[in-house]
Amino acid sequence: MIIVRDIETLQEAKKELGGTVGFVPTMGALHHGHLSLIRQAREENDHLIVSIFVNPTQFLEGEDLDSYPRKEEADRKICELAGVDVLFMPTIDEMYEHDELCIGAPAVRGYILEGEKRPGHFDGMLQVVMKLLNLSAATRAYFGKKDAQQLALITQMVKNYFMDVQIVPCEIVRDENGLALSSRNVYLESDEKRRALCLSRALKRATKMVMAGELSVKSIKKEMFEVLDEADKIEYVAIVNREFKALEEVEIGNTIILVAAWVGKPRLIDNLWI
Ligand code: AMP
Known about the structure:
The chain has helices spanning 7-15, 32-44, 72-81, 92-95, 114-117, 121-136, 148-160, 190-211, 217-227; strands at 2-4, 21-26, 47-52, 86-88, 140-144, 166-170, 233-241, 255-262, 267-273. It is an alpha/beta fold and 274 residues long. 36% of the residues are buried.
């Protein structure tokens, strides 16, 4: 595995990579969620590029940019063992210049749910993903369903800008209790870790209701709010179709149920695709 910190060296390294290239962009502090994307990309491509970059433009004022977990040494080992060919860890200066041309999230889908609670987040996310996809020139790029709205917007960006890359959605990885893995879970104190389980429990409750034939969004949300009682603050519970349009009734095979809530220090998100 080679470690690359500047764009020139990345372009040089890419010349050696014939065949298909898989790409997994991350912000590091790697866990088994990231690893499942890396493994899938490793299996499906001749070569594999992983990036670790804590992108400042997707953090809002007052968010955890400075304290975001950074574990470079451990991440490097994980990537090495997972068979990564190129680990790209650029500096901020390498990625950005002053007075940049920016792309923006779409006016509707980009400004509901996460986009409403974190205005500007998706603009920064799309900006860096566009750069990273162009730099990697990957055949396939892998993204987790955990960040469902992010995945939808990246898929839309690739379509709208006619980008030549296949976006591969990957399943959510959870711990043994059902908590969706996230780099920010390290912020959870022990009692908070227990309370954080209410997010996945609420989604399980929704599954049970749907399996029992209850399709009414209003009824499902009502029960989910009850289960989410253990969170410190619920930001939203939403039931939308795969296009992120609000639904009144669950459509089997075309629905995503999303939840965002604060438990202790971290703001947690989780979702379920039905
Ligand atoms: P991050 O480092 O949090 O920006 O995440 C990098 C990629 O890993 C994104 O595509 C995420 O959706 C994905 N990811 C993060 N957590 C999980 C998880 N628990 N299961 C599956 N994918 C995940």
